[in-house]
Structure prediction request, 873 residues.
Amino acid sequence: MKLAAALLAALAFAALPVLTSSNYVVGVGISALIFTAAAAALNLVYGFTGLLSFAQLGFWGIGGYTAALTVVSLGGSFWTGLLAAALLNAVIAVLVGYPMLRTNRHAFVISTLTFALLVTLIARDWVSLTRGPLGIPDLPAPQAFGLLFDTPRKFYWIAWIFSVAAIAFLFALCSSRIGRTLVAIKQNEPLVRAQGISPMPYKLTAFALSAAITGAAGGVYCFNLRIIDPSFLDFYYMQTFLIIVIIGGAGSFWGVIASGIALSALPEVLRFSDDFRMIIYGVILVIAMFVMPSGVAGLLRERRVARMREALR
Amino acid sequence: MTIDATYLLQLTLNGIALGLLYALIAVGLSLIFGVMEIINFAHGEILMLGAFAMTFALPVLGLLYWPALAAAILATMLAGLLIYEVLLARLRTDEFERSILITLGLSIILIHTAQYFFTATPRMVDTQYGFDGVEIGTIRLTWTRLIGAAAALVAFAGLYLTLRFTQFGRAMRAIAQNREAALMVGIRPRVVARNAMILAAGLCGLAGSAIAPIQLVTPYMGQFLIFKAFALVTIGGLGNIPGAVVAAVALGLIESWVGGFFASAWQEGAVFLVMIVVLLLRPEGLFKRGGMRVG
Amino acid sequence: MSAILRVSDLRKSYSGIHALDGVSFDVEGGSITGLIGPNGSGKSTAIDCISGFQKLDGGTVTLGGTDITSRPAHLIARAGLMRTFQTVRVYDRLSLADNLAIAAQQFDPAGWIDEFLRTRRYRQAVESSEQRARQLVELIGLQRYYEAETGILSYGQKKLVALAAALMPHPKIVVLDEPVAGVNPSRIREIEVALQQLNRAGETFLIVEHNVEFITTLCHQVIVLEQGRKLTEGTAAEIHTDPRVLEAYLGITPEMAAAEVRGAA
Prediction:
């Protein structure tokens, strides 16, 4: 049922450029698709596995820079750039994830934050690699099968295909035994160990896959902007992913997808000044954490469990 | 390159001053973690509030340093009380991730509210001391720097005595070591947590008002400092106050030395690299936490 | 019968205090063995060390002839030693069916590739795991909660779920850490019956418990620990009349114990 609804929604979304003549709306649609994929990747580590990772921001940036540099410096195509972004992120995630996951959950959160900040510093200060604060402008439009995706309308298809593929992959993962084991690790790690399962490989897998998808999302997004500079690592992106996950309901797959689509449109609808928009974001975050710490999906779920409890009394 | 002894000494003194500043922030974080097992993401914004309070108090008080400092510290302590009563008091223990997200929201609100009202333009703060200072040989130290460092030292001495010898300090250490046992002997964790939060905010406010005359004041000034402080408390072992102080002063020195000889990128990245190495070698931090130790 | 679990000379100390000071015992295959002792006698430490949740300072543990000393917890479980926990641990937000399926998944040969391709190996593994799960759920009498989240169950019911989960992969031995502590007395009898039934079907249990009556009704062999050492060992009847045990464990004389038994009967 949910799957059918998701398929319908995906198809409806595919029709967006046909339905509207506004390039602005198409642009919002592109952001919504990419942010939703990145938020779904964060949901894999935070919602399912219980690891609050700020490293996503770093992976987003590494992905963007890798894709851009593959094209600009190495002469590769957009597609090899995306692949490189995903692979490099997965490798980095395994390398930094192992020592981070060995620490306790408090130190894990802080070290992921530190990782994101280090990436920001590299983007700004390693000028010979990243071209520093000036960034890399004029990224060429992607090409495939002789088509040039040079307008927002055409680029929309790339964003759509990428997001649908990423979300489908994550869904397959989350509804598999691996996904179930991740949920089990989040709920009760000692019990998982007592049942013969070593948590580390699972956590590391979730962390690396999430990094790969976030990185590829960053790659797609920077080619949408057609430029990448250190502001690509603005903490704003991390906050956006987090808010999508929290409002939708950490640990609820479709809840996060739905809130990703809904909330990506929100900043565009609330067209106040940047500061005012961020204040609203902050207020939403604080209120949500008190009123519905497990999101909209959590609220619905609680009602379902209450009904079940009633029925089994 | 020949290393000039005076230059090195100057770097060292600057490093210690910087380290004491970091320590003021990190100690507060460690204190809060010890009592409540949470991280206050908005701690840097308390520092920013302290700096802005100093900025506004100084002209009103005729540029007098000490009354303005006291006013700023009181303001931040009040902010700490408010943050505790409105937000943190509702948290249960073992809600670490939730505490981060709530205080992250608060941090976003505070930064952008400050930016909305005060704009992002950096402010300079003038005090009665201006740029006066003392000169020892060829080394020159401004009064504002010296007083800032001295105030930090006095604050640490006060904190040490408080934790060591007062009823409140003992209660705080008891909770950090064993919450259940502390409850059983009648310590009220909420009161202790509130006091810890006020104390931590006050220390942070001191840091903020002390650097206001030294650095430029902007709404974002707390953010980068707090990320460093997070790294510091992790290096020092979460909840371990002396560990945080040692790590903070060491970092101040390292940053100052590195900054004196290498590009500034290395200076800012140093703490994060150190932290990664420490966590690789000792996942629990340098000084493993065995409750909150004092002295 | 031969010893399935052989523990010899376990040593463990915390900052100078000997929690375990050379404890040795055997658990016979197919038996129910009890491990009792007063608070702080080291029984919880003993099973934490045996199951790999704490590091041993010395001694050896062999399971079915294989040395499992100081292996990480998950490898000890894979070797065939499953355990439960004193404060009940289940996955509150997963269904009872999933709780049991996870407990068995590490023990079947199907990997993620099998799952992705839905190979025969995968389907067989899922099928046999489900069959076992239904059997065990029937035994613990929670059929109607099969699809329900275990979070809605009572504490006693969760203890039964934890027991069933431990049995899922057909382990060589199940170690139960205080299976009836905090359980409603009316439910204790249910657990007793379930354990006896399982034991007749060939399962081996090592039970750590405070409830002496529970232990003496169930166990073939009882080991008594005191202050990190083995005080004595014997059948339930022998233990029950051993004056040393009564004194160490209950702090009472045999006459008082006898009076208590009469009172309870």
